Amino acid sequence: MIMLNTIGLYTMFRREVKRTFRVVVQTLVAPVISATLYIFIFGTVIGTRIDDFAGVPYISFVFPGVLMLSIINASFASASSALYFMRFTRGIEEILIAPFSYVEMLIGFVGSAVTRALMVAFLILTVGLLFGAVNLVNPLMFVVYVAAISAIFAMLGIIVALWAESFEQLQVLNTFVITPLTYLGGIFYSVTFLPPLAATITHFNPFFYFADAVRSSMIGYSEANSAIGALVIFGLVVTLGILVTYLFRIGWKIRS
Asked: Which end of the chain has less Cβ packing within 10 Å, N or C?
């Protein structure tokens, strides 16, 4: 029978939640303000000039992509900053000597990041309700997809935090990989609007499946094969989970 160190996990979780609320303007308020601006500009200003798409107003079509962008940034920033700061202050040594397994370390960091992302998601849902942008046809799958996507980027954040040697390097993956692929993944447009070649290329972009999964759970419209989308999302969760656990086990960048 597998026994988890529940006290230790709760301590990690509580510390990260406190850290989130200690800088609440940066961690919760800023993402909500950014999402509000996206919703207002792309949904209200531009959306009123665009016909309904897939049976819903454009603002409802674009809202899931805006929400996905916010949870990606929240989970990535939470995990990367937490682990890098612990490396920087040598606080990681306390985790290494504590009675934690490497899987429990993974659960602690990822669980905290997913919690922050869920808080951001529900705050943005509240804003979306005020704009009349929210449709939620499958609430359970919405939470599952948000949690899974958040976990993916939390683990990417952990990998970057292990690799980085400066605060500036924490933003390298976000700036040069995550942000471009996000905007090219169909968060503000339908893939059917693209030329055939561009549409084909988009189907090789995993961010397309992230946005499509959230959108399908919210408005019931999907442009991707749902089986492929689920395989991409949950396959990445498992693959990155194994990779991060292995990096913890060998002590990459965290053992002197």
From this structure: N
